[in-house]
């Protein structure tokens, strides 16, 4: 058992630490310094140029990856994107158009609602491109095109390497579509590709926050409620972080778009309430500093996650975690990493069964 876990106490930690390698295996075969290779994909350049809309459909963490995917895809390829929870999409009678593309995301490739959503899209004549980890799974088999995340088997119920490898493929697809559609200048595209190649290495660097996050988890493990706030891509990270925390440590946690705080959640802030402010978006950084001030003034304890060089959180937050500079769209690959570690150590502190949280299944194959 210990050998299977590679010397770690839980599969989740083994899988967190496997992320750099999983990213290398997923991304590197599909790109060089200046090119993305999708030769095995049946979508033609003509089809890509004519996309009217993209529908990203998934469940759980894969849906959070989809939320990141929307920001990135719209930013670089200028195709309008809708992100749907599969169990909503399948019963909503979604409006699909011949020139739409459906992107299905699933680690297991067997989630019942996600598979049903795929079938709905196909029934309406829309092409399906899926991002899947398990080779030969139902979703992989029924899709028109499959991009595999080469994360290897994921055993812990809470996904880590599954999620971050999904993000890496969403970057690749978005950049590829942008290139075909000519929405990003060659020079910028190359900068993006260079940044993408640094993903494994920078992930490795960020995972060195391990000890720091263990300390913070020890300090805050007895929190009853945790609010995680962010804007843009940091809001997507807040949702994924909040899910991680509640899944395995059973602490009540909510993710909030930081601008919505004053429309409700701020009434819940009391002396000592933990607020985690994810503030890695350069152009939204100051806004998050203001939000952190607002909760701080009401007694909250604040942990901030910011990018190196942005020091303004130091004066507001109780703790600041720094991530390497990577440009706004790639921060999603890094901002979630300290939170994976934080959720893990919090669960350990609270004596929870990290790999097999109560009431949850790795793959939800029934409705
Ligand atoms: C379950 C897992 C989650 C996962 C979700 C979707 O709830 O616990 O970690 O994100 O299913 O699973 P899929 O295999 O479709 O990505």
UniProtKB/TrEMBL annotation:
Catalytic center residues: 362
Keyword terms: Aminotransferase, Cytoplasm, Glutamine amidotransferase, Repeat, Transferase
Documented EC number(s): 2.6.1.16
CC per GO annotation: cytosol
GO MF term list: carbohydrate derivative binding; glutamine-fructose-6-phosphate transaminase (isomerizing) activity
Entry's localization field: Cytoplasm
One GO-annotated biological process of the protein: fructose 6-phosphate metabolic process
Annotated ranges, domain SIS: 44-183, 216-357
Catalytic activity: D-fructose 6-phosphate + L-glutamine = D-glucosamine 6-phosphate + L-glutamate
Coiled coil: none
Enzyme class: transferase
Subunit annotation: Homodimer.
Reported function: Catalyzes the first step in hexosamine metabolism, converting fructose-6P into glucosamine-6P using glutamine as a nitrogen source.
Protein name: Glutamine--fructose-6-phosphate aminotransferase [isomerizing]
Gene symbol of the encoding locus: glmS
Residues of the full protein shown: 241 to 607 of 607
